[in-house]
Amino acid sequence: MSEKSNKFALDILVSLIPGTLLVLFMFLGMYISEVRVEYGILPRNMIGLRGILLTPFIHGDWLHFFSNMSGIWVLMGLLVFFYKDIWLSSLAWIWFLDGFWVWAGARESFHIGASGIVYGLAGFLFFSGILRKDKGLKAVAMLVVMFYGGLVWGIVPIDPTMSWEAHLFGLVAGAITAWYYRKDGPMNQEEYVWIDDIDDNAFKYWEIGALDEHAEEQIHDAIEVDEPETPKIEPLKWTYTYTFVPTKKED
């Protein structure tokens, strides 16, 4: 494999680490039975504030756990891979906003599970891809719609045992976070200046974003094209000859 391929594979593996760790802690939370409900979010109750931090690690049963595990793992991987500079702060805002809004405005009952985070990540990846001009991020947004479009039914209060409030607030938190970081993280679609070298089979490009006020000099130095010398044109010289002919005197 080439060096570029090795780096790409390494980036993918590294991007999966945070999601894997989060799933691992969720898995460990399944074995702590006494925190499955009591440590969840209890709206408008001071003791319920601790659930903002802990509720993603608490699930009612294994079916509930596995339904959130795949979404967390995949969406976290996409977030870390494509948004390397802002993934941690984006996750923190989604986590906090979703949990706080559930505490402030949801039904007075214990709310547990990581589904609000799943909705927040899906919302961030979708709206961030729409807001940016990068084609790759738009493709990610479309993939989220294709594989997680069914999540939209989770924001409708059709099942009294489901925390649709956490789903709705998570989606909104993801959208707001995407808007907030719309100018950070991955740059917009890269623009290139294509320059035809003397060799017809070779083309070089230069990223516009890397150029400064001395753009022409940078491009010229990067290409290192031997320019033919411009021939010097000597100015024309004219020689003027004056002949004086004396006039004849009349008799």
Secondary structure tally: strands: 2
- Tertiary shape: elongated
- Gyration radius, in Å: 33 Å
Helical fraction: 40-55%
The biggest beta sheet, please?
2 strands, antiparallel
Q: Based on helices, strands and strand pairing, what is the structural class?
A: mainly alpha
N-to-C SSE series? HHHHHHHHEEH
Major sheet: arrangement of strands: 1-2
Structure description:
This protein is mostly helical and 251 residues long. The chain is built from 9 helices and 2 strands; from the N terminus they run ααααααααββα. The protein has helices at 3-15, 17-29, 51-54, 62-82, 87-105, 115-131, 135-148, 164-180, 215-223, and strands spanning 192-196, 203-207. The chain has a two-stranded antiparallel ribbon. It is elongated. The termini are far apart.
Summarize this entry quickly.
By secondary structure, the chain is mostly helical.
Annotate the secondary structure layout.
Elements: H1 3-15, H2 17-29, H3 51-54, H4 62-82, H5 87-105, H6 115-131, H7 135-148, H8 164-180, E1 192-196, E2 203-207, H9 215-223
Antiparallel strand pairs: 1-2
